[in-house]
Write a structure and sequence with these properties.
alpha+beta, Tumour Suppressor Smad4, 2 domains
Length: 272
């Protein structure tokens, strides 16, 4: 068995727990590697399990990097809210035998594939688990034209626009007035950010739809994926957003339902 441990380089506690877990696993004869954002993981495609130590941000980073490999991911919460985590750090040793026996359920989460096609033929690609957000570089008003499967939806004018997954429905989209969506559904959420057009409300569309974004604005825009990485959007470029052809497989050791989990996490976020 080969296990990858992902920790947060900027949070020393996650690194300490990761290396303590290395000792636990190597005593059982398991091959272990650690990704702490500094050390290079050479062979990324043959992991049986990925354990992520940290908060949701660390899981988002690990998803963009490793979800395409297909290995199941266990989130061990060492952050604040932990929407994507399944267990707390002090529960890991208790659940470790079940984890190694593959005695768990898998919750599959949809991922977005984002591509930007520039007029000169060049392109940029990226993926995200929560949302992709379009805003201007210098905080100007944006005019974003939305097209769904070649059907014109119209212009969205405001601070920005996001396309979110059901997983991302409890993140930035929720704070912008979007609905909470069961992650078992395969849908795309189009959520305006501070819309200047009052009739433009959040929209939920089928997961197999292809969304295209364009703009006639003469200022620069930027695309942010999961709030962590940026893709440039040059003038007159076309942005395409669609469901990726792979999913994140989240390990569920507690058989906790989404609705119980989300209620606990939302209450926790209110207490911060």
């Amino acid at each position: 068995m080969r296990i990858l441990l992902v920790s947060n380089y900027y949070k020393e506690a996650t690194q300490e727990v990761a290396y303590q877990t290395v000792e636990l696993l190597t005593k059982r004869g398991i091959q272990v590697e650690v990704d702490n954002e500094q050390e290079v993981v050479l062979e990324q495609s043959n992991f049986d399990i990925i354990i992520v130590f940290g908060g949701d941000g660390t899981i988002l980073r690990a998803t963009r990097k490793y979800a395409i490999c297909g290995a199941p991911v266990l989130g061990v919460n060492m952050g604040t809210v932990g929407f994507l985590s399944n267990i707390e750090v002090d529960e890991l040793e208790h659940y470790l035998p079940r984890l190694l026996e593959h005695s768990y359920h898998l919750d599959e989460r949809m991922i977005l594939q984002v591509s930007v096609q520039n007029t000169d033929g060049s392109s940029h690609q990226g993926c995200c688990l929560n949302e992709m957000v379009v805003k201007s570089v210098d905080h100007q008003l944006n005019n974003i034209n939305v097209e769904i499967d070649s059907d014109q939806v119209g212009n969205y004018r405001g601070d920005g626009l996001m396309v979110a997954t059901p997983t991302g429905s409890t993140a930035y989209s929720l704070s912008c007035g979007g609905p909470v969506v069961d992650p078992e559904l395969e849908v795309l959420l189009i959520t305006p950010i501070a819309s200047q057009i009052l009739s433009r409300k959040p929209m939920v569309v089928g997961g197999n739809k292809v969304i295209k974004l364009s703009s006639t604005d003469r200022h620069d825009h930027v695309i942010r994926l999961d709030g962590q990485i940026e893709i440039p959007w040059e003038l007159n470029a076309i942005v395409t957003v669609k469901k990726a052809d792979y999913k994140l497989k989240l390990i569920n050791l507690k058989s906790t339902s989404f609705f119980d989990h989300i209620d606990t996490r939302l209450r926790r976020s209110e207490e911060l």
